[in-house]
Amino acid sequence: MANTPQVTVGAPDDLGLRKILVDGKRVGRARSPRELRRILDRAGVAPGHDIQWLGGDFSVWPDKPVQRISIGFVMVFGLLATAVPLCHIGLSDSGDALTYGGRVAGFTVLVASIVELAAAAAAVDYWGRRRWRYSGVVVLIGVVIAFLCSVALLLLQIGERFNRYTLIGLALAAWSSVALVVLVRSGVWRGLRYPKTIAIGVIVSTFLAGSNLAYSQIYVPYVKTPLVQSGAEFGEATQEKPGAPMYVTVHLYVKNSGEVPVYVLDSKYWIRGGPANSRSDGKTGQFKLVYDGDFVTPVGRVLTPGEEIKQDVVVEVKDPEGRKFEAIKAQTEVYVIRKDRMKMSDAYESSAVWGKSLKEEVARGKAPRGANYRFRAQISNSSEILNVTRGRQLITVWRVASEQYPRIVVDVSPPGERIEFDGRYPKAKKKAIQRYGLTVVRGSMAQTPYPELLEQARSGESEKAEGSGGQDGSGGSGQP
């Protein structure tokens, strides 16, 4: 009987597994008498052999398979449910985010989704046979990531429209909170040599990663401010003969002097005539509109840092002698939006609507009164995480006709909501300004005495009449 093996069955763990030792060597773990018998058969122990029981006798098998499998299934489902949106966001932002920091954040989110997949696999082991020593720790890391992601998603949803990602955030927050309680009670960190050191390392690493993302995603984009300048200058004036219209050349420009590229949504310029001092009697509307138009084409084009758009337009002034102007002035207005905070589809330029279709929109209250042109396009945010939290946005630009103040009206809002942007009251549209850098750039005003301009046109006419030798040229001085 010297070769009789010594069999020991240990106490059950929290999953009901009892360690089986033969001559001090571990040969397996069992949850039921059937599993115990199968393991002993493999070890060559005959039925009826004496067994030393620790932590309970033959009748103690606390495993609850239905409960265990259900908990494991819920854990795996929650981890996979977290991995899917993280993978979608990470893949999108790692390649398509508008900024370098956004792409780095995309790679970080993609890594987090891979960790979630590993945690789902570890959950199968942890609520199964627990063959891997650290499976519980990996599950804990995955659940913590899910909790942080749900909190971030809900914070980003504050002030936004309720959408399906709000439900996802609420569901993940509830699931991860319960899962954390279950894992803490299970003591998943058991088996780690230095749990406190590892926990501190994880906390510090998370803090550094969060600080880096906050710096790249929030601080850097907002310290870079666009600087767009615009203006107008008067050029030469010509007139064919007394009583004929006078033609005035006006030089218009817009320049990006900053570090941020912008989309030029639309542009406008006005030529007005009136008294030399518009504040002489305190009245408004003293200047009368002579001419107006747009000067940046095509609409929606990108103005990169250092780029300048110039255009000379010829303005026709009818009955110049009959106009009792003391001065004539020109001014520009350009609407821009930051390219580093949103992406506009190429359909904007070709989305023009006018005529009967636009009149129907005006009649239904879907467009401002007097609108004679409309451009519209869908825009996406600078990152996919902002797309899923803010939802789809539309940008609409109307050109509105008026006898004295033709203008541009811009709207950035969710579909079905019309929120006009008025540069005169910027606080009313603070959200669009902060999010996308929507800005109206009013150019420096050019003003010149009208009598001098008329005299210049007449002198050009005289020089042309005197130059009967076949000379070509208008005779304008080109002087503002």
CATH C-level class of the largest domain is Mainly Beta
- Structural class comes to alpha+beta
CATH-level-4 superfamily name of the largest domain = Immunoglobulins
CATH topological fold name of the largest domain? Immunoglobulin-like
- Report the helical percentage: 25-40%
- Please identify, by name, the CATH architecture of the largest domain: Sandwich
What count of helical segments does DSSP give? 10
Please give the largest β-sheet.
Answer: 6 strands, antiparallel
Question: Overview of this structure, please?
Answer:
The protein folds into three domains: 7-53, no CATH class; 65-223, no CATH class; 228-460, Sandwich (Immunoglobulin-like). Helices cover 38% and strands 26% of the residues. It has ten helices and 18 strands. Strand 15 (407-413) and strand 16 form a beta hairpin. Helix 2 runs antiparallel to helix 3. The longest helix has 32 residues, at 65-96. The N and C termini lie far apart (120 Å).
Would you summarize the structure shown here?
With 480 residues, this protein is an alpha+beta fold.
Keywords:
disordered C terminus, 10 helices, 5-stranded antiparallel beta sheet, alpha+beta, 3 domains, 6-stranded antiparallel beta sheet, Immunoglobulin-like
